[in-house]
Design a protein that fits this description.
Largest sheet: 2 strands, antiparallel
Number of strands: 2
Strand content: under 5%
Strand order of the largest sheet: 1-2
Number of domains: 2
Structural class: mainly alpha
Radius of gyration: 24 Å
Helix content: 55-70%
Amino acid sequence: MPLIKLLGDIFNLFFLQPIINLVVLIIYLLQSAHIPGALGWAIIMLTVIIGLITWPFKSSQIRTTKRLNEKMQELKPQIEALKQKYGSDKMGFNQAQAALLKEHGVNPAAGCLPSLLPILLIIPLYQVIFAFFEGAKGLDKINYFLYSASWHLKSLPDLHFFGVNLAAKPSEFGKVGLAVLAIPVITAALTFIQSKMMAPVKVKHFKTDSLTEEKEKEKSEDMTQAMQSQMTYMMPLMVGYISFSFPIGLAIYWNTLTILGIIQQYLIAGWGGLASFIGKPKVESTKVKIERK
């Protein structure tokens, strides 16, 4: 269809083509400096560059999500009261909840828009890395999108990085060696750390909370804990399995991106849900009374 082709051309022009030219430029610079493992370093450097470009957008998303979680915790008793008021009237409850959130300046969709650009950049980055593992087909694809014919690669760069073939898969450990099995384990571990940090902290409890508020908060914690467990434990297992089945070069890209995400999450929101897991002390919140004279 013409529309699909037009969207594809726009995507290639503004995302895929610039990234292909950037990674080839990095490879040429590394090769001219006689640095071994140019492709591996190019993947890491390219991922860092993309991470820095998307850093402000991700920061905005993390801050928005943090504020949203904190505000939702504060409004939880009122939301629970609305559930009791409207009972089985889901439409009435949804309208009342939307009005409550709007009244307190809460927009659940506010963190979605800043995440669009990082996603748009991750997709072509993945395609570029994979093209280097597709042999002659991938070489033709790379050369096709280069701005200058003088940049055309005569052959694909050396796929080895610290003695490991980036196109190899950990699932082929019988041929590659048992050491590559550490890659999906590391990938899963890093994903677990990031997921745990992103998990919402426990609902704050205060000495002044009523019995009703305590029950509502405990109920909220149970729901949050169930959702958190699925995200925190299932996601690393899934990513670890993907890392086990896909080329090692993609794991380098994913792990570099994850490490950047961990650093960014820590700088903006601290250890988050990981604090209790690693034994970090929590700063207890207290209610401050302001007396007016």
